[in-house]
Amino acid sequence: MSKSYAVYILASRKNGTLYIGVTGNPLQRMEQHKSLAIAGFTRRYGVTRLVYVEWYDDIHEAIAREKQLKGWNRAWKIKLIEQSNPEWADLDPTAA
Fold first, then answer.
1. 10-residue mean pLDDT series, the chain (96 residues)
2. Are 55 and 22 a contacting pair, CB within 8 Å?
């Protein structure tokens, strides 16, 4: 069985505004974020760069991890991102 739930972090730019989310359809969700299709935080702050992803088989584990990350302080979130993506590159496979 493939890991089908993603916990992800978006950023407006390197060291910019962060957004943490969870989804069962990562490609559709990234399209929504990048097109700013949904009113809210990501549209307001231009948070569209996918900088971190974790994959889970179980939605309950994914939601628990999302809540955990949202409770972290900013420095911990930045350290987590930079461990696997020091340049804050856009990890969205559909990004041009």
1. 86 97 93 90 93 97 98 98 97 79
2. no
Strand partners, 22: 7
All domains in the chain, ordered by first residue: 5-84 (3.40.1440.10)
User: What is the rounded distance in angstroms from the CA atom of residue 52 to the CA atom of residue 44?
Assistant: 20
Beta carbons of 17 and 51 less than 8 angstroms apart = no
SS3 38: coil
Cβ pair 42, 8 in contact under 8 A: no
Closest residue by Cα to residue 22 from 56, 71, 72, 73: 56
